[in-house]
């Protein structure tokens, strides 16, 4: 995480624009929440039960606060659902090799000529520019 925090500092120092859409926000929220659940030893045994528990409330507040900080530095962009080749995305998804949200993010990056900052190895070989510290993506 420190690597990506430094990257954000560098991006901001360079006065670069940062774009974000709702799928990125959702992915961040879900990943952050699951990471906390794992670090806490998977309380309540089930993630959904944990998310509905009193234990989750302060975590949800922290996540919301962190998202607001990130959004202060971002320009919101629409993923263009109406313009997506949904049949093509669903055909690719049906082959069982792809995460649908990742497919939509790739389509957005292609359409808007954006670079994606990610640690997710699923973005390897997608034909988009990726900024990452993930060694698997760099290889």
Summarize the structure.
The protein is mainly alpha-helical. It has helices at 2-13, 22-39, 47-51, 57-71, 86-94, 100-112, 135-138; strands at 19-20, 75-76, 116-117, 130-131.
Give the helix/strand class.
Answer: mainly alpha
Mean pLDDT metric: 93
Tell me roughly what share of residues is in helical segments.
40-55%
| Cα-atom radius of gyration | 17 Å
Give the strand order of the largest sheet, numbering strands 1, 2, ... along the chain: 1-2
Number of helices: 7
* Termini separation: 20 Å
Query: What is the molecular shape?
Result: globular
Strand residue percentage: 5-15%
Main sheet properties: 2 strands, parallel
From N to C, what is the helix and strand string? HEHHHEHHEEH
Task: Walk me through what this model shows.
The protein is mainly α. The protein is 55% helix and 6% strand. The chain has 7 helices and 4 strands. It has helices at 2-13, 22-39, 47-51, 57-71, 86-94, 100-112, 135-138; strands at 19-20, 75-76, 116-117, 130-131. A two-stranded parallel ribbon has the order 1-2. Helix 2 packs antiparallel against helix 4. The longest helix has 18 residues, at 22-39.
